[in-house]
Amino acid sequence: MTTWTGGSPAFSRPHGDAYEELVSRVYITAVRLGRPTRDALRNEGLRDEEIDDLTAELMARELFLPGIDPDSWQVAPPREAMTRIADRIERRAAMSRATASEVEQLWRAAVGDGRVMEAPGMDLLKGVQDIVDRVRGLHRVAEERLWWAMDASAASCQLLQQAADDPDLLSVRPGADVRVMLDTALLEDEAALRFMERHEAAGHPVRVGNGIPFSLLLCDNRAALLDLSRHDPRGDGSLEARRTGPLLAIGTLLDEIWQLCTPYRATAEAAARAPGSRAPLDQRDLRILNLLTTGASDQLIARQTGVSVRTVERRVRYLMDHLAAATRFQAGVQAVRRGWV
């Protein structure tokens, strides 16, 4: 305990719950007094050292407000002040629960205990490279289903770049149900566009969505992977699950993401396969229209097509006029109806 000494007997400051009880007793006393002063608190049996410590604590907690002089205080309206304190306590409790496992791991590392806390069928992944290796492995073993939603995570970007150099790297055996969903943030990555076009050419549907929260991959009914490396570039917290509950939950989430995403099609190839519905547009306009239907901005379209933003604006206006569309969204709808995308 901390001890103060002065002209009066020493004040031994309690700790933990005992101190909380003392603060509560003094606060209730102050509420009863209405306008607490040093003299009034002395009359309640408190010594100056106790008064100095406890009033400072109550000021820090916003239960007390300064008075007209250093030896007087005002009590803050209790309903508002105590509600604020309850909110802070609840936030601290939630933070404690959320960080308990991480702090446990830090403690184990500090004391030299190398054990990792893991539940059966749940593997914590060890960095971005581990995520990349697991994703590649799940592509190799998938037999019936491989659903993959990608945000612009460190692991996703690394995988897309590797796939650009080796087109067979993320291939899946024939007959598997393959769904690929990419966040619109990846449309700025040329490797991502090549990846989508290869999947479309292979007959695997690709969709694009805005705001995919994190990368998810489901392989058959055997494993699911959560890639959180966009939120922590080191990849900490990412995991692979092989338990029934998480697999069903992740499968449901991926299906919901799929329904919310916009289909992506390689328009030029689609037009070539169906001459009767060929779009009366050149290759550049077809790509602009294709990106337009995914929700891409004019700036992003300009970067991907190698033209100026002003040119994109002109071509988008031309496409909207050509399709009798009042908005960009309507232009996309009309293009889909005509079979151009």
Counting helices, strands and paired strands, the structural category is alpha+beta
Poorly predicted runs are: 1-8, 266-277
Give the overall average pLDDT: 82
Largest sheet: 8 strands, mixed
Organism: Ornithinimicrobium cerasi
Protein name: Regulatory protein, luxR family
GO molecular function: DNA binding
Describe the structure.
- It contains 13 helices and twelve strands.
- The chain is an alpha+beta fold and 341 residues long.
- The chain has three domains: 2-76; 132-264, Endonuclease, Chain A; 267-337, Arc Repressor Mutant, subunit A.
- An eight-stranded mixed sheet has the order 5-11-10-9-6-7-8-12, sandwiched between helices. It has a two-stranded antiparallel sheet with strand order 1-2. The protein has a two-stranded antiparallel sheet with strand order 3-4.
- Helix 10 packs across helix 13.
- The N and C termini lie far apart (74 Å).
- Mean pLDDT is 82; it is low at 1-8 and 266-277.
